[in-house]
Amino acid sequence: MPLDTIMNRTKNELEKGDKEYSLNGPCICRGFKMFDGPLFFALDEMHLIGYGISKSIWKMVVGSYGKKLLFLDNTTCKEISKIISNSKSSIPTTFHGYEKNINNQSGYLRAVDWIDFLLHVVLTIVVGLMDNIEDCMALMCLVKACSLIQKWHITEKEIDIVEKLIRKWNSHLKLRHDQEKVDISLFTISHHYLTHVPEIIRHYGPLRNYSSRSLERTIGEYSDHFKSKSKPGPHAGNILHRISMMNSYNRKSIDIGNNEEYIGASKIIGSQDICTLGLTEI
Q1: Count of other CB atoms within 10 angstroms of residue 250
Q2: Are 166 and 158 in contact (CB under 8 A)?
Q3: What value does the mean pLDDT of the chain take?
Q4: Which domain of life is it from (predicted)?
Q5: Helix residue ranges per DSSP H, the chain
Q6: pTM of whole model > 0.85?
Q7: Which of 134, 176, 198, 264 is deepest in the core (most CB within 10 A)?
Q8: Residue 162 burial (C-beta neighbours within 10 Å; 0-12, 13-18, 19+)
Q9: Which is nearest to 24 in space by CA: 10, 36, 13?
Q10: 42, 197 contact by CB (below 8 A)
């Protein structure tokens, strides 16, 4: 099938299954009233581009998929980490970037760190260290596409550009695979999902508007408060209750201005005297 031909499963296939194409049973979401087929499943830009696409590019650089496409030797990879480290002093503290050594501690990078790596490090450092012009041009197409995907507002013309850039990247990967310069394991589900991004944007809007970034930050906020190991369930419930009450009282404090009654209550919620409001001690 040509790379520029993208075929979605039909709603009927998802509802009944299609063993010929490895869909062994009906989709578990078929019972929802709003279920309308394959576009029912949106894509999350943070995990798709961060953990999926960006991380795979670094694996190509270090040779996990073969040492012919985008590969750089270990000395050069160390140089990349050194350049990143040396640039920290010139980056304003307003910008929160990763502090890990990408060559030795890539497993500790977050999805947002991988996105920064793709959009900034690859474009300004990695591409300049590569010799093959065709590989560099294809990689720059991918970076440009991911950069446009990250926008909060995107036009139909830009969506068309994203579609063309992704097609060029995939065509180059297929060419290199046919030339036996890249392992088949590179073609993960993330690279497949990338081809569906333009259609998803047309259907739902820019991916950033329904990204899981805010959810991940919320999970991090709750995780920082978890202390109990003996009774994690009740403890998590207390934390959830406590933070919800703090947010509620803080909103009321803002709404009524400097009313001391609500401001005082807000301070109580944030203190260890939370049990006086009917909650168990956390």
Answers
A1: 16
A2: no
A3: 78
A4: Eukaryota
A5: 11-16, 45, 55-62, 74-87, 111-116, 133-149, 156-178, 189-194, 197-204, 213-225, 232-255, 260-270
A6: no
A7: 198
A8: buried
A9: 13
A10: no
